[in-house]
TrEMBL record:
<protein>
    <submittedName>
        <fullName>Zn-dependent protease</fullName>
    </submittedName>
</protein>
<dbReference type="InterPro" id="IPR050083">
    <property type="entry name" value="HtpX_protease"/>
</dbReference>
<keyword id="KW-0482">Metalloprotease</keyword>
<keyword id="KW-0378">Hydrolase</keyword>
<dbReference type="GO" id="GO:0046872">
    <property type="term" value="F:metal ion binding"/>
</dbReference>
<feature type="region of interest" description="Disordered">
    <location>
        <begin position="183"/>
        <end position="209"/>
    </location>
</feature>
<keyword id="KW-0862">Zinc</keyword>
<keyword id="KW-1003">Cell membrane</keyword>
<dbReference type="GO" id="GO:0006508">
    <property type="term" value="P:proteolysis"/>
</dbReference>
<keyword id="KW-1133">Transmembrane helix</keyword>
<dbReference type="GO" id="GO:0005886">
    <property type="term" value="C:plasma membrane"/>
</dbReference>
<keyword id="KW-0812">Transmembrane</keyword>
<keyword id="KW-0472">Membrane</keyword>
<feature type="domain" description="Peptidase M48">
    <location>
        <begin position="136"/>
        <end position="361"/>
    </location>
</feature>
<dbReference type="Pfam" id="PF01435">
    <property type="entry name" value="Peptidase_M48"/>
</dbReference>
<dbReference type="InterPro" id="IPR001915">
    <property type="entry name" value="Peptidase_M48"/>
</dbReference>
<dbReference type="GO" id="GO:0004222">
    <property type="term" value="F:metalloendopeptidase activity"/>
</dbReference>
Length: 550
């Protein structure tokens, strides 16, 4: 499909949204006018308020169309003078791809590359181009593989994908915003956003806005909630249904085009950078995606929860620790050999990686094989400094002022802080039972004395309970409490080993933080077995006492 036809298709999809919105707004206006003409005053007022409340989300959806340029990514802009080799590679690839080079090059923290074009006239006229490169790609890919990734993105420019994306994405945002706004009051689900870059800051801002909310705003919410309980579910359901159907149609139509654009860009990458390098880049990127998620969640996130971060540059660059770990080589090789296949749906924007690899491998052999080459990070001048600068652009102000420390110290201090918090419910239950609080070693000794005296489950009764656990009795009550009791006892035992035996949590890139005694003795499995024995129906505190005694 040519650029003109795709532009017309995108414009027709937008026009369909406008026609639907106008029809529904006219229907709501007509219903309100009819109520004033034939219904009692109270009914007319109710109909008018409901029409306004339902019509506002539609108006917002229409009015958001064309606002913003979609270029909301954060990243470090690098100049040609500062990074000449990287820019030379990009310009050379643009020439071989047959398209104009980007005007800006930005480095991000994501395992992703993307292009954006600030277009005019809803994307019909070209504009300033931006190329985003994720630092993890520079760390994990070879130079030919990175060339393939860049050529793929530049291929979107050559196919005019970025110009028409302005129409498509803005239309999609408007439709989805309208559907979300038409959700009936009182039926909103809880916020399920994952903690992310701005999660804490956004939550605080929303809380502040709620505290500063005007009386009028509170009154409007109260009226909307009250009316929603009366007629909201029916009215909102009827009005929302055509928009939900159009949203499904819009996504199916636009995402199918997006999948074809990705396959076309893959062919460009294979032609410019080589078939084998393109396949290798797809396999390696799939591995990087998994490894980066593990690194950020298990290691960086661990420290951040305790107010700690690794040394400067390691937040975005530390993923190489996992890539270089000898214990992970076999697992990473397995991931490369079995890229994600997934179950494609009509709403996917990208075909499954396995399908993309299969189609590229079916292309004719272009001669050059994916041979060893220098890491893509070598394209950066003073790479370590660049990693630090990237962090400065992607971290929140709160994160930027966190204490920095090396990985061994971060691991021990962070896990210790979290373990103290996790042990608190059991220590509180012990205090409620009558055990005088003390150090971790003293509390553990007192708990084991209670076990030997047959009072463990008397202590456990003071643990927090779910409603179902609170209703249970006898053996069922014990089984409800046992997981929390075992977890609390283990946390307390770990703290006691740190306090009395000099144990420390040490980083393990393959297995996560591990608790070790002096002399590198790993006690994780031994401790888990000892705790299970102590809280069993026929308890034995000997193993745990022996472990604590050394």
């Amino acid at each position: 499909m040519g650029t003109t036809l795709r532009a017309l298709r995108a414009l027709f999809l937008l026009a369909g949204f406008y026609v639907l919105a106008l029809a529904v707004l006219c229907a709501l206006t007509g219903a309100a006018l009819a109520a004033w003409a034939w219904a009692p005053t109270g009914g007319a007022v109710t109909a008018t308020v409901l029409a306004v409340l339902v019509g506002l989300p539609i108006l917002r959806g229409v009015c958001t169309l064309g606002t913003g340029d979609g270029d909301g990514k954060h990243g470090l802009a690098v100049t040609e003078a500062g990074q000449p080799e990287l820019w030379h590679a990009v310009r050379s690839l643009a020439g071989r791809t047959g398209t104009r080079a980007p005007d800006r090059l930005l480095l991000t923290e994501e395992v992703n590359a993307a292009v954006h074009e600030r277009t005019r006239l809803l994307g019909l006229l070209p504009g300033r181009r931006s190329l985003y490169l994720g630092v993890p790609l520079l760390i994990g890919l070879s130079e030919p593989q990175l060339h393939s990734v860049i050529a793929h993105e530049l291929g979107h420019y050559g196919n005019a994908d970025t110009r028409l994306a302005g129409i498509t994405l803005r239309g999609r945002d408007s439709v989805l915003r309208t559907v979300a706004g038409l959700q009936a009051p009182g039926r909103t689900r809880g916020d399920r956003r994952k903690p992310g870059r701005d999660g804490g800051r956004t939550a605080a801002a929303e809380a502040g806005a709620e505290r500063r909310g005007s009386t009028a705003a509170v009154a409007v919410r109260a009226v909307r909630s009250g009316l929603g309980r009366i007629a909201g579910p029916l009215l909102y359901g009827v009005v929302a249904r055509p928009f939900q159907a159009y949203a499904r149609f819009y996504l199916r139509a636009t995402q199918s085009v997006g999948r074809q654009q990705e396959l076309a860009a893959d062919r460009v990458a294979a032609r410019v950078a080589g078939r084998d390098a393109t396949v290798a880049a797809l396999r390696e990127t799939a591995v990087l995606d998994v490894v980066h998620d593990v690194y950020v969640g298990r290691y960086v996130g661990l420290g951040a929860r305790a107010g700690l971060l690794p040394p400067h540059g390691e937040v975005v660059g530390g993923v190489r620790q996992l890539l270089d770990d000898p214990e992970l080589r076999a697992d990473l090789a397995e991931l490369r050999g079995e890229p994600p296949s997934g179950e494609p749906t009509p709403y996917d924007s990208h075909p499954p990686v396995a399908e993309r690899i299969r189609l590229i491998e079916a292309l004719p052999d272009d001669g050059p094989a994916a041979s060893p080459a220098r890491p893509a990070l070598a394209l950066l001048r003073d790479a370590e400094r660049v990693l630090v600068e990237v962090e400065g652009t992607v971290l929140t102000p709160e994160a930027l002022v966190m204490e920095r420390t090396d990985w061994p110290d971060l691991t021990h201090r962070a896990v210790h802080t979290l373990t103290e918090a996790d042990a608190r419910p059991l220590r509180t239950a012990m205090a409620a039972f009558g055990i005088t609080p003390g150090s971790a070693a003293e509390d553990l000794a007192a708990l084991l004395d209670a076990v030997d005296a047959g009072r463990l489950w008397w202590v456990a009764r003071h643990l927090p309970k779910s409603p179902e656990a609170a209703r249970a009795s006898g053996r069922a009550a014990r089984e409800f409490l046992r997981p929390d009791l075992e977890e609390g006892a283990r946390n307390l035992a770990e703290l006691a080993l740190v306090e009395a035996a000099g144990a420390r949590w040490e980083p393990s890139w393959a297995a996560g933080p591990r608790l070790r005694l002096p002399g590198e003795r790993d006690v994780e499995e031994e401790l888990a077995a000892a705790v299970r024995a102590a809280v069993a129906d026929d308890p034995d505190t000997g193993p745990l006492r022996g472990l604590l005694a050394g």
